[in-house]
Structures are given as C-alpha cells and as structure tokens.
Write a structure and sequence with these properties.
This protein is 67% helix and 18% strand. By secondary structure, it is α+β, with helices and mostly antiparallel strands. It has one domain (13-96): Ybab, Chain: A. It has a 3-stranded antiparallel sheet. α1 runs antiparallel to α3. The longest helix is centred in the last third of the chain and has 43 residues, at 58-100. The relative contact order is 0.18.
Length: 101
C-alpha cells in the first residue's frame, strides 16, 4: 500500500515537472499584447507592442494585459487538468489492483 502511495507521489512530481516545461500563450488586441506562461501558471514573458504605448492610455493597456494574462491562465488550467486527469486514471487503475488483492 505504501508502495502505491510512493508511486502516486512520484507521478505527481513528474506531472509538475512536465507542466513546468509546457508553455501556454494568451493574447489580446490581435496579438499586440502577449503573455507566455508555464502550465503551472508561472508567467514567463510579457510582450507589449510599441504602438500600443502611443495609441492607448495606461488603463487601456492594463485592461489588455489582464485579458492576455487571463487567457494564458485558462490555457494553463486546461493543460494541467488534462495531465491530472490522465494521472488520476493511472492511479485509480493501480488502486483498483490494490483492493483486488
């Protein structure tokens, strides 16, 4: 039983490592504001097109940035959920074998 728990813990670490290496992108205003994050929801990069500084005021830029950030975080959630769902299926399969013994 402890072996199964240890395997589950190792699997969780593997998933976290994989999610650290998966990038997701959120964009606003046709890609002129772009956010890159890991699937673990760590913001890696923010890019704002130079033209936006001239065309928009501070509040508009902030709103565009929020839109791009939220899109990136939604994508990160989707990737993370898919990875966890696959791992859960593996784990329940293993736990089912544990209880059948």
């Amino acid at each position: 039983m402890f072996d199964k728990l240890f395997q589950a813990q190792q699997k969780a670490q593997e998933i976290k490592s994989r999610l650290d290496n998966i990038s997701v992108v959120g964009e606003a205003d046709g890609g002129r504001v772009r956010v890159i994050a890991s699937a673990n929801k760590e913001i890696k990069e923010v890019t704002i097109n130079e033209e936006l500084y001239e065309e928009n005021d501070k509040e508009q830029l902030e709103e565009l940035l929020i839109v791009a950030l939220n899109k990136a975080l939604v994508q990160a959630d989707q990737v993370s959920q898919a990875e966890m769902q696959a791992a859960t299926q593996d784990m329940f399969g293993g736990l089912g074998n544990l209880f059948n013994k």
